[in-house]
């Protein structure tokens, strides 16, 4: 879950300046802490955990099939590579052997009949052909494997898209949630800083020493964020619903028109 929402720098307000005017009042706020504990992020984390449990059940069978298929492909790839390495070693041995046989044939040729020369030449060619057949077989396996791997990638990609769509349907868009949270953190820091008279707000990570511990306004910013969320929730509940006119009144209005 920690990997889902990556902690980003709240750059708008937490701008670092190498030189600070002596008259500036500096405050500190921890952007990572605020983002992790922002009510929207906390809620999203809980929703995502629940979503993962439900998704695991819903897509469990398909996911296991993909895992099994991937495992089989990796094993096949490993076997092809192993056989290719063996064939490469065999090639070196065969080339050395054939070179000796060709040299021997050339040496013996003056004393041999044409039929004997042809027989030995055919034997040399047969060895070459047998090895070439092995090479062709390996190449065919590699070609077929490439097609399987490509098909698997498409299948896995489609599965990931399906899970992502399910995630969006459930209102779990990590990027959108995080972007909104960062914007709200920026606004809260700016508002609180102006209220307290801070002219510059930095991340505690850049401070080697701070004499005034009260200059750290992280918890106060978090309180503002929580209060804003609570206020919005209350306003949403109190929004009056539009009352529909009784059916008889609607009919009367229609007849009058």
Cα-to-Cα separation, first versus last residue: 60 Å
State the share of residues found in helices, binned by percent: over 70%
The ordered string of helix (H) and strand (E) elements is: EHHHHHEHH
What is the number of helical segments per DSSP (H or I, 4+ residues)? Answer: 7
Output the strand order for the largest sheet: 1-2
Mean pLDDT: 81
State the oligomer.
single chain
Strand content: under 5%
Tertiary shape? elongated
How many beta-strand runs? 2
Largest sheet: 2 strands, parallel
Q: Which class best fits the helix and strand makeup?
A: mainly alpha
Radius of gyration: 37 Å
pLDDT < 50 stretches: 1-19
Brief sketch in words of this structure:
The chain is mainly alpha-helical. It has helices at 31-37, 39-58, 60-108, 114-169, 174-196, 218-238, 247-256, and strands at 26-28, 200-202.
């Amino acid at each position: 879950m920690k990997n889902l929402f990556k902690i980003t720098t709240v750059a708008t307000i937490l701008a670092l300046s190498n030189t600070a005017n002596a008259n500036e009042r500096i405050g500190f706020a921890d952007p990572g802490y605020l983002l992790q504990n922002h009510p929207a992020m906390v809620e999203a984390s809980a929703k995502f955990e629940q979503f993962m449990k439900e998704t695991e059940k819903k897509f469990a069978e398909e996911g296991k099939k993909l895992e099994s298929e991937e495992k089989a492909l990796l094993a096949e790839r490993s076997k092809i590579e192993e056989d290719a390495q063996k064939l490469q070693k065999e090639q070196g041995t065969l080339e050395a052997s054939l070179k000796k046989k060709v040299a021997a044939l050339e040496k013996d040729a003056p004393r041999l009949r044409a039929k004997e020369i042809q027989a030995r030449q055919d034997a040399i060619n047969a060895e070459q052909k047998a090895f070439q057949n092995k090479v062709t077989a390996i190449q065919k396996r590699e070609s077929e494997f490439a097609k399987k791997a490509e098909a698997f990638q498409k299948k896995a990609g489609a599965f990931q898209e399906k899970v992502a769509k399910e995630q969006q349907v459930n209102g779990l868009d990590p990027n959108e949630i995080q972007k909104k949270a960062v914007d709200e953190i920026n606004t809260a820091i700016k508002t609180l800083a102006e209220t307290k008279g801070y002219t510059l707000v930095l991340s505690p990570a850049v401070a080697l020493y701070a004499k005034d511990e009260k200059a750290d306004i992280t918890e106060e910013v978090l309180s503002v964020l929580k209060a804003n969320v609570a206020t919005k929730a209350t306003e949403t509940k109190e929004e009056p619903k539009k009352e529909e006119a009784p059916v008889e009144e609607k009919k009367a209005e229609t007849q009058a028109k």
